[in-house]
Specification:
Elements lengths: L9 E7 L2 E8 L2 E7 L15 H12 L15 H10 L8 E2 H7 L6 H9 L12 E2 L12 H13 L2
Parallel strand pairs: 4-5
Antiparallel strand pairs: 1-2, 2-3
Length: 160
């Protein structure tokens, strides 16, 4: 879990093909990549701190990047962070079920808890919770909306 900080986060917005994405970094480490809800602030434009993250997201959406190379600052419970690390191991263009992720972290009965951890993921796209599907392969549970989950999976399928 993250300690209290004295510095102020750096924020920016990135306009993606599926809507504006809000970025937040603390000390150069990414703490949030989330779909902006409601009005977003165009004045929070990329600067030297956020430019690398924006570039990588732009490359991802153009289909030229499959893996991200940025420092993340995940802030969750021990279980959530374990799930988020497991999500990062799901290859580009592939999916896993909540049950498969639960089994991968050694907790095969924790599929619902994996779903809750996915829902709490603060770093969308980069920590690819969109690659987790229901037991029958159904698209279920995505904080950014199921239409975005479908778009991201189809995008990755086209570029894998």
């Amino acid at each position: 879990m993250r300690q209290a900080r004295e510095e102020v986060p750096t924020k920016a917005f990135f306009v993606s093909p599926i809507g504006p994405v809000k970025l937040e970094l603390w000390g150069g480490r990414v703490t949030r990549v989330d779909f902006a809800r409601g009005q977003f602030h165009s004045r929070a434009v990329p600067d030297a701190t956020t430019a690398g993250v924006v570039r990588q997201l732009d490359e991802y959406f153009k289909g030229t990047r499959r893996d991200f190379d940025m420092e993340l600052d995940l802030d969750g419970t021990e279980f959530q962070e374990e799930v988020w690390r497991a999500l990062g191991r799901i290859p580009f263009g592939e999916t896993r079920t909540y049950g498969q992720v639960a089994a991968a972290i050694g907790r095969p009965a924790a599929a619902r808890a994996v779903g809750a951890a996915c829902n709490a993921n603060p770093i969308s796209i980069v920590v690819p919770c969109h690659r987790v599907v229901g037991a029958g392969g159904d698209l279920v549970g995505y904080g950014g909306g199921l239409w975005r989950k479908r778009w991201l999976l189809e995008h990755e399928s086209r570029h894998s």
